[in-house]
Structure formats: C-alpha cells, structure tokens
Amino acid sequence: MALALGLGSIFNHSSHPNVTYSIDAEAECIRFTTSRNILEGDELCIFYSHNLWFEDNDVSNESFQNHETPISNDVASPDSTEDDGISTDLFPDDLLPFESFKYLRDDGEELSNGVVATVDAWVVDIPEPRETTTLLEFIRQTGLGMPDLQHLKRVRKTSLEEGGFKSTLLLSLEHPTVLPPNLPEPYISPVPTSPARNLEEVVLKSTIWPTVYQPRRVEKITWTYGRIRWIRAGIQRVVDEARRAKEMGEIPIASYVPDEWETVSGLAARDTRNSTNHPLRHSVMNLLRQVSNAQHSPPESSDNMTRNGQRYLLTSRTLFTTHEPCIMCSMALLHSRVKDVFYIYPMNQTGGCGGLSCVPGLDGVNHRFSIWKWTSPVDLKDALEVDPQLDA
Ligand SMILES: C[S@@+](CC[C@H](N)C(=O)[O-])C[C@H]1O[C@@H](n2cnc3c(N)ncnc32)[C@H](O)[C@@H]1O
What ranges does the record give for the region Disordered, renumbered to this chain (predicted)? Predict the structure, then answer.
C-alpha cells in the first residue's frame, strides 16, 4: 500500500481524469502526470476507482461527454479513425477492454525450491521489551550493521511457550564493534540475504527473520485513447475475417497483423483447414506465411511489411487473433519475434498462450511476447465459437 502525503492527498476524483499517476516503489513516491492540456482554472483530478465510497459530483463529466464519447464496451468500427484531439490522452487502466496474461514468475533468483539463502548475523536478546525503542535509537545513531542489513527488520518477536514474547535485536554481520549497555551476550543467527520480492517470499523469509518487502520495479505500461481505438479496430478486423471464413465454410478463426500502429491496413489470414484439406493451415500459420511471402517479393508488389526488417518477420509488431493460438502457432509466433498477441477466445484445452501451455513462458525459449486477453463483449463473438478441443 502507498499513502499519498502532502498535495498527493488533495486530488479529487473524476471519471474523466486529467491527471494519471503511477507508483515508483524504488523512489517511494507517487508520480502524478497531466494527461491533457490544462486550462487556467481547471481542477486537476485523478481516477480513484470504480468503487467510490461517496456520491460523485464531478462537474467535468458533462462537459467531457461533449468533448469525447467514452469508449463503449462494444468494438468500435475500424474506420472510426477521426481525430477527436484526445488520442494521446491516457486511457484509465480500470477501463481497459483486455487484460494481461502474466506468465513470468517474479521469483527472487536465489529462492529456488523454497530454500531461502541466508547469512550468519549477530543478534542479541532484549531482556526488557520496554527498552526496544532506546535500542533502536542506539542502532540508528551508531549505524551498526548498515548498509548490509537494511533489508531486514531490526527486531524479531518470537512467542514463548509460557506466553508472551521474546524480542531479539539484529546487530551486524561482523562481530559487533559497539554494544548497547546492559545486554546479554550476543550470538549468531541466520538471516535472509536479500529483501522479499513477492508476498510468498515475505512469508517464507520472515520465518527466518522479519524481512522487508521490496517488490521489483515493474515498468508500467500506459495506454492512450488512440492506441485503444487501434486495438479495438484490430479486434474488429479479426472478428469480421472469421465471420467471412465461416460463411465460406471454414472454421471461424482469423488473425491479423496491422502494418504500422497508426494504420488499419496490414495482413490478415483465415483458417483454411477445410478448403485445403490440410490440417496445419491454421490462421496464424497462414498469416506468417503471407508475411514471409510479402517480405520476399519485389518491393513494388510487397506490402509495407518489408519495412519490418530482414529475418525476424514480426519484430515489434502486434498480432490479433480470434482464438488463442495452439502450441504449434504459438511457437511459430515465438519464432517470428512478435511483440504482442491479442486474442478473444481462450482455448483452455489446446492453447499455447496460457491455455494448455504457455509457450513464451517455457524455460529455454529465446523470445518472450506479451499476451493480452480480450475481456470486453464483442459483437458476433458467439457466432465464432469452435470446438474447445480444436487447435486454433
Ligand atoms: C483524498 S480526499 C480529496 C481531497 C478532499 N476533497 C479535500 O478537500 O481534502 C477524498 C475525498 O474527497 C471527496 N471527493 C473527492 N472526489 C469527489 C467527487 N468527484 N465527488 C464528490 N466528492 C469527492 C470525497 O469526500 C473523498 O472521500
């Protein structure tokens, strides 16, 4: 948890905020950033959450609606690219129409198989718990044990069988050079070598010695209204393609890679297993073949895909697909060095992007890509349902 101090606690809430914020755990601060041009007299507001504990009387709601139609839950049409002047405004995280599938475990490196790396440190029992504050002040003034032990709490309390607690003070790694007066002999006890990186580690490490929780800094992804509109267009495109595939007697699965992120052109492919009578003609495989053909044909006939680079076909590109790619297609995507994959339908029994397996999360693979699951309602979604045992 982070408690905003100073002016940080003064921001009122708006469902159309003009200020976004992110927590910088390392610097122990909250960074507030304006996300629109601010006119003189404008109130700066942040978005608290959807669960307000008060009645929202934010007056900017009304004027905002004249300015921009908030993104609705249905998929916008791909040609709704008119600029409303706010495409670079930040889209509120709580309203994102998709969610990230996280597959990289944030384990501390040295915590393998639940074994916590420890080092021996000097500790001393505190006979008189009332002295604890004075002892902590002594530690602070002498700097004893710093900086080696700053990832640990200085006092450990252990319950005694006969009731009550015993408090133990952490002194230093080396034999303490100075000692607070009137204490018994110090002794050696193991302590974790590093802070707890996740909640599991807090529990595990703190059974040895109370350990500070210091999550690794996660880079925050911000989404603009323009980017969200572009993603919606990508989703709409694969839905349309899959619907057409179905009309033509194919399995209703389609994929699409836009050219450049600002545009809606690019390459799309449908599943063609039925018409080709070929079991590997999945939409992603078809699409990758198209991309590769485009890159190897002469420039005048090739798509803008040639700009993409030489060998790594989808480097820094986003792929949209109706159904979570199967393991074969996920591996092909990994080879292609794709950056992001968005899909609508999870395929829990066959998928290679988090369903049955998570190919980019496997040990030893040489590329990782981000996986995004669409969570918002989609027109025609039901019409695109396939056998859950199918490899998409
Ligand atoms: C963190 S404080 C914000 C600063 C507060 N308005 C002040 O003057 O100290 C949060 C409180 O502000 C009020 N508040 C913030 N945004 C509001 C809004 N949109 N409508 C009504 N009350 C709001 C609520 O009473 C809420 O509990």
Answer: 64-83
Protein residue whose Cα sits closest to atom 4 of ligand 1: 10
Clarify whether residues 244 and 182 are in a common domain: no
Structural domain boundaries, residue 183: 118-206
Q: How much distance in Å is there from the Cα of 13 to the middle of ligand 1? A: 6
**Nearest-CA neighbor of 65 among 120, 134, 16?**
16
Nearest CA to ligand 1 atom 13: 12
pLDDT of residue 54: 84
Q: Do residue 126 and residue 190 come from a single domain? A: yes
pLDDT 10s digits, 241-272: 999 999 999 999 999 998 765 444 688 999 99
Angstrom distance (rounded) from CA 180 to CA 124 = 10
Whether the pTM exceeds 0.90: the reply is no
Task: Look at residue 35 and tell me whether its pLDDT is greater than 50.
Answer: yes
Distance, in Å, from the CA atom of 17 to the CA atom of 30, rounded to the nearest integer, reads 16
pLDDT in tens, 285-326: 999 988 877 765 554 444 444 444 444 478 778 999 999 999
Task: List, as one string, the DSSP characters of 181-238.
Answer: SS----EEEEEESS-B-SHHHHHHHHTTS-B-B-PPPPPPP--BHHHHHHHHHHHHHH
Q: From the CB of 60, is ligand 1 less than 6 Å away?
A: no
Q: How far is the CA of 12 from the centre of ligand 1 (A)?
A: 5
Question: What's the CATH number where 18 sits?
Answer: 2.170.270.10
DSSP state letter for 139: H
pLDDT at 380 over 90: no
Say which CATH number the domain at 256 has: 3.40.140.10
Instruction: Say yes or no: 181 and 229 in one domain.
Output: no
Q: Which of 174, 206, 238 is the last residue of a domain?
A: 206
Residue 13 CB–ligand 1 contact under 6 Å: yes
Cβ(10) – ligand 1 distance below 6 Å: yes
Taking the centre of ligand 1 as the mean of its atom positions, its distance from the CA of residue 97, in whole angstroms, is 27
What percentage of the chain reaches a pLDDT higher than 90? Answer: 38
